[in-house]
Design goal:
alpha+beta; five-stranded antiparallel sheet; 26 strands; transmembrane
Amino acid sequence: MSTEIERLLAAAADDTDQPLTTDIDDLLVRARRSVRKTRIATASTAVLTTGVIIAGVATWSANRNESTEPADGPRLTMDPSTGRIIKDETGKAVQAPPPVSQLSDANLRNQCKQADKEYVDFLRERGANAFDKGQPLDARWKVVVKAGSGNRVQAMFLSPDQSIVSTCTLMSVGQAQSYGRSSTKPEATSGRTPTGTAVNRVPDGVREVLVDLDDEIEPRQALLGENGFYSLGFDASTSGRLRQVRGYDDQGHKIFEYTRPPLPTAHWPSVPDNVTVKTAEPITPNVVLTKDPLTGKSLAPPPPVSPLTDEQITTRCRGVDDIYFSGKSSAQDPRNKAAGPVTKDWQVALKTGTGNKLTAVLISPDKKVYAWCHMLAATAKGPYDYTRSAVQANGKFADDFSFGMVPDGVAQLVVDLPKQGPTRALISNGYYIWGLTGGNSDIKSVRIRGYDANGKQVYTAKKDVDADFD
């Protein structure tokens, strides 16, 4: 699962001091597959409730019962030769729906199994989604809609007891760009009063669906599948952008409408405008550790410095950065936006990887924001993970399981990884990393040890880390 998704999941769960601002599309869209936070999907700690119900105004036309015949009035304009909607009831042109995927249901279930397992395991470890019994994705789950062409497909699966619907967006064979589960029952959303309709679903009786997205003039026709579930396909990001959903009967009359309510105002920690990130003073070790001071055994070497130039990295990460902002809802720290897009003026503070595989930390010119960028190909068409975060009042970035900030007085760091054992961290410009983090949800709590220039231990702490590398 994407770390971005994990971060979003954590944010969605941590609603103790601010209103819920994360919708299901935020949870599903970002990241790649992934790889983890399809990390999009990966803040860092809390738990989440993904039994998400879209709160808003969902009404039947004229407050009528579903079985009531609608009064004659404006209707959709259809192309008689294709059956496709050409114009909506107001005369506005409509974008074509995505095609039905030609991949078999069994093929899609098989491709999405791993993402489903990672998602379920991640939430189970954190005690989230009590409504989800954790039934594994298997042949009993019905494919209710599958939209896309080739291997770029969005599929939705309905659980055997019809209590859970999962959404899997595949970007290539076996590579889930995002994955998520939600409840089909409004009452499952603990602690919140549902007033709208379930995610990507319209009531019985609806035969056509139009979706209006922010920043788009023309509505999109959705592909309507079984049980009222619909999809806009792989290429239509709805993260934070879904403005309105309209449903029509077989005569083209509007009988259902969902309108997004005004988003709640997000409250961000008060940080003085003059606060910028403060990193530890670099210390050159007099003795480079090759053996673990605690056991005398050889340390695993640090991850390699990426051979890519800084300009290559900023150029590649800019492509992912653009996607991040195109799908990001308005509920985010304003400093992220104020820092502007990634350009060659951003400092590549830390970079590791081989060939086109890359994990990097980029710092904005104003020293207030970092961009964490993980890519497995030269462009954003390949797997990636990505997030941004702004500096805290203490001049430090919040702790993250993908990299760390070097503590003061530390020249070398050892990370006690569960699989490869004690590993010397790669340190650069006040930041450190222990591997090619990104693209999975194997988050472990490990011991970090810091040593001064002479090899004396001066720091120790537990830290949640991404412990499984692409």
